[in-house]
Structure formats: C-alpha cells, structure tokens
TrEMBL record:
This is Uncharacterized protein. It comes from the Bacteria. Keywords: Membrane, Transmembrane, Transmembrane helix. The chain crosses the membrane at residues 12-38, 50-74, 86-106, 159-181.
Amino acid sequence: MAANEQSLRRIPAFRFAVPAALAVTLVWGGAIAATLWVRPPAGIQLTAQFGHLLALCAGFGAVLVIDTCGLLFLTGRQGAAQTMRVVSAADPVVWLGYAGLVVTGALLEPDLDSPLTWLKLAAVLVTGLNGIHARLLTRELAALPGDPSFGGLSRAQRVRLLLSGTASQAAWWTAILVGFWHNQAASVA
C-alpha cells in the first residue's frame, strides 16, 4: 500500500473532504477569475492548446483505467485489492491531468459569455468534487478486511461506487464534448 494512502486513512473523512472540496472550488474559481484579469502573452495559445491536450490525455486516460478496473470489480472479474492497487497508482495522474486542464484552460481565454463555456466549467467542477468523493470511497474500501467482492460491499457502498463512476464519466465526457463542440463552432465563425 502506498504511503500516501496510509496517511490519508488516518485523516477523518470530514477533515479531508471539506478542505479538499474548498481547495478544488477555490482553484476552479481562481482560474475563472484569472481569465478576467490576466491576458496571456501573444503566441501562448498554441502552447496552451497542446498542454490542454496533454493534460486531457493524462487525466482522462487515468480515469478510464480506474473506471475500467471498477467495471471489472463490479462484474466480479477483479478483486477489491487489485482494484485499489490500480486506483492508488493512477489517482495522482488523474489529479495532475486535472490541474493541468484547469491551468491551461484559463490560458485558452474561454468565452465566459457563452452558456456552453459555463456548462463545461460546471462539468470541470463536478469532476473535481467527485474525485474527492471517489478518494474517500477508495480509502473506505481499502480499509475493509480481506478482499471483498462488489456483492460483499454494503448496499450504501455499492450505490456510492455506481454513482461516483457514473458522475465521473458524465462530467468528463460533458467537458470533453462541450469543449470540442464549442471549439468547432468558434473555428467556423
């Protein structure tokens, strides 16, 4: 088990979740505020787009690995212990990708007058907040004795896992597709 997972387990859920959710929300809001007052230097747009694409590949790629392992766990093809090992390894990559997307997204000068932009921004916030919930779930499952199957979890744990996985995919895909559609509309105009 990774040292960061051991130290995370010692922190009561409330003491981790509230500051983490506040940090995600403040960074998200700060990135939006930065777009209002900071103009990136000329020529940075292409670099920011490339960085945004790299961060998307890293973050969403790691999410797909985690969610695929979750699906294997759900269907009984993989145990909780193996799933937790993969989640522990991929989680930092998700957060690095997420942070990269927030920073480079601010440099892309989003159109804050567009409802599509706000839909994407809301999906980005949901992604971050759900990531905190998923981390708490991971900690809870890692603390269970033995190697329980999905069916061996409590009903509440099963529901939370299903809702978290669904929210993860819905928020990531919403942000990706809205960003793509909005970019296509802007390039045509």
